[in-house]
Amino acid sequence: MNRRPTITDVARAAGVSVATVSKAINDRDGVSATTHAHVLRVVAELGYESSLVATSMRRGRTNVIGVLVAEFEPFALQLLQGVSSALQDTPYDVLAYAGTVSAGDHLGWERRSLSRLGGTLIDGAILVTPSTMPQNASVPIVAVDPHTGPDGPASVAVHNVDGARAATEHLIGLGHRRIAHLRGRSDLESAHQREAGYRAALEEAGIPVDPALILEGGYRAASATVGARALLELTDRPTAVFAANDLTALEMIRVAAEHGLSTPRDLSVVGFDDIPDAAAGAPALTTVRQPLTDMGGAAVRVLLSMLSGGEPEHIRMRAELIVRGSTAVFPRSLADS
Amino acid sequence: MNRRPTITDVARAAGVSVATVSKAINDRDGVSATTHAHVLRVVAELGYESSLVATSMRRGRTNVIGVLVAEFEPFALQLLQGVSSALQDTPYDVLAYAGTVSAGDHLGWERRSLSRLGGTLIDGAILVTPSTMPQNASVPIVAVDPHTGPDGPASVAVHNVDGARAATEHLIGLGHRRIAHLRGRSDLESAHQREAGYRAALEEAGIPVDPALILEGGYRAASATVGARALLELTDRPTAVFAANDLTALEMIRVAAEHGLSTPRDLSVVGFDDIPDAAAGAPALTTVRQPLTDMGGAAVRVLLSMLSGGEPEHIRMRAELIVRGSTAVFPRSLADS
DNA sequence: CTGTTAGCGCCTTCAA
DNA sequence: TTGAAGGCGCTAACAG
């Protein structure tokens, strides 16, 4: 547990002043070639690396982009991968920070994280599914799947309405008429848009929207359990469910199995996101794919542009229906023909 | 792009000194109840949060655990998820940092990251697949899948030899005799252990090890392409391949398809890790599962124990063979009977 | 070309 | 009970 060498240690060992070491390291001019080389040699010997913290405090810039998330769930992780690879050949490093791991409260993690890291540690931030948008942030921000429409700061999202409509139309096309919806988190814009797409598809097909078939899913498995159970215990239970994301769709399938219902035999289920687990299950989940990796890349592009003075942009990407094994024709008798 | 409020702003707004604000925030005594309440009100009004950077610089502790990775690839991401959820009800936050995003060199990212973050920003570090082990680090360290055996610092890993043996025995049991191996990164202990398991299984079955069938895979898709091609262009080409991890196994399947060979019909492939993509492909990959989430949890336990003065530990977890669709009986004629 | 000085935001003595 | 001063590691301005 040795103390890491500081710039002072280097200066002492090299027999020069701290300032000279700093200049040598950062290739500032005003240092003789001899001294420069000498200092670098000592730096290498001691294994010195400048402290990100101290540097960031003194300088404005750190060349680090922060990816701020509430927690490390599949959606955020895959996005992170996209951000990271988009940053490959830039001078920027990536730093991911989960804001609610210790501080259990789900509200305002965005502001807290931004305030703790921003202005000092990171030059810009990518906020993943923020439910509030800090107004006067100290660094440029891009929100991915934000809580609000394109009136706020820069954002990247998919066409949620279209995606949800495609999902619902797919179920309708299979013959389903009693199609339920497990809502997303009501503090996120995407949840409302997906519900809107669901409603639109039903209405266009002339199927009345039954409020009893729309229950809370909350985008998380734990928060969807109750709603999933309730749907199955309805006297006239749905034959298909459009869940607002994959985590809740998978939970829906699990709960259905608990009730002795198999998917897609007794219940068709469609999700949204296409997280890695979606394709892995049995049956594999029919879902609406968000191009998460590309979205991470898009967020990086927008952010880098803002960092060099560009205007905030709002990007919408296409969502694509991926038909797999969790949806089937209804009624089943038709499948046999 | 407003400047974030600093402790000085709070002090001025509250009409007290900076020191008093600090005491009030950190619940130090020596502040009257009235002042305390007043300061906290102003803090809330201004939306002030102490800067992680400044705090970390002054204090020793930050209550942040760092997960240091070379890059955000599936293995690291899933581990991160485990770390994050294991830290849920502790006072610690998680900070993930990719060391080689900007600085392209693959060597020594561990020391660089540690030195930049350690001692200041993070209280302890979890190093993911480090290929060197910094000796005199400034904070406690746990290595996951380290480059060296249990002689180094604390570590968490799976029984690589057993896992590799099980994978190879599975292929042998299916009737394969010409079984190739796509090696892992030679700077990682796990790569050598997996190769050893592969060799052991062959020898136990009385199958001579053919050096021509052991090629470099390097744990990454890009680095496996050449080796995969070479294997298929052998005059007496293998009927099965044990790849040292899933990324290279999937690449093996892709390259085989390019050569007009379908898996598992013409070539059986086994991977290692069970990353999310393994189960998603067509065919789904037969692989050896590393309990990545649990391993993240184990790393957290060891690290927290070390942070409260405990001794470094070395943990080995079981690897489990998961048979899916990328392996089949050989020769094919047997499958028909 | 090199060194001295000041200060980034915060916390911790120590003095009032 | 409060405030003033110093310093964590580093860099930018200024002196020498």
Structure description:
The structure is a homodimer of 337-residue chains. By secondary structure, chain A is of the alpha/beta class. Chain A is built from 13 helices and 12 strands. The first copy, chain A, has helices at residues 7-14, 18-25, 33-46, 52-58, 74-86, 109-117, 160-173, 189-204, 221-232, 246-258, 276-280, 292-307, 332-336; strands spanning 64-69, 93-98, 124-128, 141-144, 154-158, 179-183, 214-216, 240-243, 268-270, 287-289, 314-317, 320-322. In chain A, the strands form 3 sheets. A 6-stranded parallel β-sheet of chain A has the order 2-1-3-4-5-11, sandwiched between helices. In chain A, helix 5 links the parallel strand 1 and strand 2 (93-98). In chain A, helix 1 (7-14) packs across helix 3. The longest helix of chain A is centred in the middle third of the chain and has 16 residues, at 189-204. The N and C termini of chain A lie far apart (72 Å). The interface between A and B is large, with 63 and 63 residues. Strand 2 of chain A pairs antiparallel with strand 2 (93-98) of chain B. The structure holds a DNA duplex (16 and 16 nucleotides).
Précis, in short:
Two copies of one chain form a homodimer. Chain A is an alpha/beta fold and 337 residues long.
Provide tags for this entry.
12 strands, homodimer, 4-stranded parallel beta sheet, 337 residues, DNA-binding, 6-stranded parallel beta sheet, alpha/beta, 42% helix
